[in-house]
Amino acid sequence: MPTDTNISANKDRKPVVLIVDDDASLRLQIHFTLENAGLAVVEASSGEEAVALFRKNPPDLVLLDVIMPAMDGFASCRALRALPGGSHTPVVMVTGLEDAVTITQAFEAGATDFISKPINLLVLGYRARYWLRSGSILNELKINQNRLFKAQDLARLGHWERDLDTDEFQFTCHSPEILGLTSHSCYDDLFSSIETEERERIRKLIDSAGDMEEPWSVHYRIILAGGDVRTMLNNGEVVRDDSTGHRHAIGIIQDITELKQAEEKIRYLAFYDNLTGLPNRALFLEHWSNVLPYARRSGKRMAVLFIDLDHFKRINDALGRSSGDKVLISVADRLKSILRTSDIISRSGEEQPASLISRVGGDEFTILAANIATPGHIANLAERIIKALVEPLQFGDYHAVLTVSIGISVYPEDGSEIGTLLRNAGTAMHEAKARGRNNYQFFQSAMNDAAQARFHLGNRLRRALENGEFVLYYQPQFASRSGRLTGVEALIRWLDPEVGLILPDKFLLFAEENGLIHSINDWVVREACRQAARWVAAGYFTGCRMGVNISGSNIDFKRLGVQVKEILEEEGLDPQCLEVELTERVMMENTEEAIEMLLTLKEMGVSIAIDDFGTGYSALSHLQLFPLTTLKIDKSFVQNLQTSGNSHSLLYSIINIAKSFNLKVVAEGVETEDQRLALCAMECDELQGFLLGRPVSCEKLEGQLKISGGQGFISRSI
Ligand code: C2E
Ligand code: CA
Ligand code: CA
After folding, report:
1. C-alpha distances out from residue 589 to 268, 348, 351, 550, 555, Å
2. pTM surpassing 0.70?
3. What is the pLDDT of residues 531-567, one digit of tens each?
4. Which of 224, 335, 651, 657 has a CA positioned 20 to 30 A from the CA of residue 448?
5. What ligand has the least distance to the C-alpha of 504?
6. Which domains does the chain have, with CATH numbers?
């Protein structure tokens, strides 16, 4: 009879039962029965012996007598349970006393089951087999659960389930704290550590996926108790429990922070240039396909600038590769800052796509300039790049002067596919090289001619400002009821010594593109205030306003406000006599600062007019947004009056709304008597237009003012 069995990990080995009983005859009976049932048996006559045997070779089942002299069954059971591997071996108590207390005690000590004496030996073999089988199933379950926990830990994963009909919630995770949760977390807790801005959105998304019985997959960021920010993936689906008919939302939560970081790293490597941090060719192409639909829809132009450094190889050879790298990095930085400040070209608002620079080759860069209004914008950008790059670069004792050659192709004129546009920009770039480098060329020569003319115009305008070739004309405005003069609008003219009188349409747009408009604005305000002050002093201009147009993008409103105030003081003009006219487009570009400046001016007593109201940008809400005193109805509106009945009623409502905001309404472009009568009938306050008076030189207007004897003259046509 074997008293000890080698329990090895052999599949075919017999299961081993350890019998612990101080009664040798009972041990023998049981031993015999179990061996006959095909089991291996080990015997121990006391609790201590059992523990020693178990420690050496854990059996598959223990039959443990309750009443033994030294260490009783309960104590033995506890001791066995505490041994390594002892927690999941089935232990069956053999008890003579079948009373509730003993049974309870047995289970408390960790027993799996009990049998009572006298033992029914006929069935013992079967029961032993049953205990063994259920023990091993339980064991496997535990092993699987441990594996699952291990896997959950490795995958940083938790599992949750919510009964959508009863709202019962379960969450299982071995280390819930890594997911920002605890083992007692409820459904609400799933969302509590999500970043505040995202919390509601994610919750709604998962809730409504549950309601619609659709699968979901979202990721979001959570903030752990220690402040760590992690990215979580939550996905799952709704399943129906066949037995209860209840719907369950079943989901997993997984910490995918590292995965995300790796993804970002991969994206960076795939889409950015390591040296300069600029987007690479792949991202450039991707960006193109993103902005193309917008350009198609809006009919806007885009430009591709192909920029190649001149003689870069020489720098590389002379200063070494690492200096060459530094050159490329500073070129990238300069390009970035140009595009950042080049508002006309790179402004990306709602809907409007941004421009993008990329490094596509060793010393080759490309710019995709989205949102181009005119080829002039692109020429302006190219000029700024050339200018910025010739600033010398310093390397220790050396400095290098860089020049670039730029080729430009324009969508849609030069191609509708990026491959074609890049090729054509490249061709133009070679043309720029051939023309002695350090210049830019459009792919289409017609555009070069235009650029050339622009270049001249830029120089001529600058000279015009220096030489005092600008003058102001003044167009009168009249009260529609009395016909009395209420003010004039100052309108700029260019008296070019060669060409003669040039109207603002021919040069202001260009001045706006190249930034000269800011000096022009300053000059106009100064000149108009000076003139008004003279007329006031002469007694010709009592109670009249001088209207001054201010335009351009990138206006520094703070500076402008200070400037206007200074001019008023220096010229000694009462702020009540000045009216500034701005279009909505100008005010909307930098809304906050514009409002601040306008408020300051308005408080001083300056009138504020919204100009060209009723054209493309108009919105009635702007009347509330800006501190206005006057609304100027665009002339196109007035001129539509005869042709469309619609515009009549629209105009009427605009006038009424403006009045409800306490604004004075001035109609521009009044050319016919019919228009005048219609506007009078609509109680438009003031009128301006060729019918009543054309813009005239200062001398001419002064003549008219003089005749009226200082009371403000009455329009002849009223
Ligand atoms: P605006 O501010 O709408 O000025 C009114 C324009 O309408 C003037 O054109 C004026 O001559 C013209 N006009 C006046 N009455 C009639 C009329 O009955 N019928 C028609 N068809 N036109 C009329 P102008 O002087 O050629 O100026 C054009 C635009 O140039 C101005 O439009 C304004 O936006 C801008 N501008 C003119 N002077 C200045 C200035 O000193 N500074 C700035 N920033 N912009 C100016
Ligand atoms: Ca105006
Ligand atoms: Ca206007």
Report:
1. 33, 12, 15, 13, 9
2. no
3. 999 999 999 898 999 999 999 988 999 999 999 999 9
4. 335
5. 1
6. 16-150 (3.40.50.2300), 156-261 (3.30.450.20), 276-464 (3.30.70.270), 468-708 (3.20.20.450)
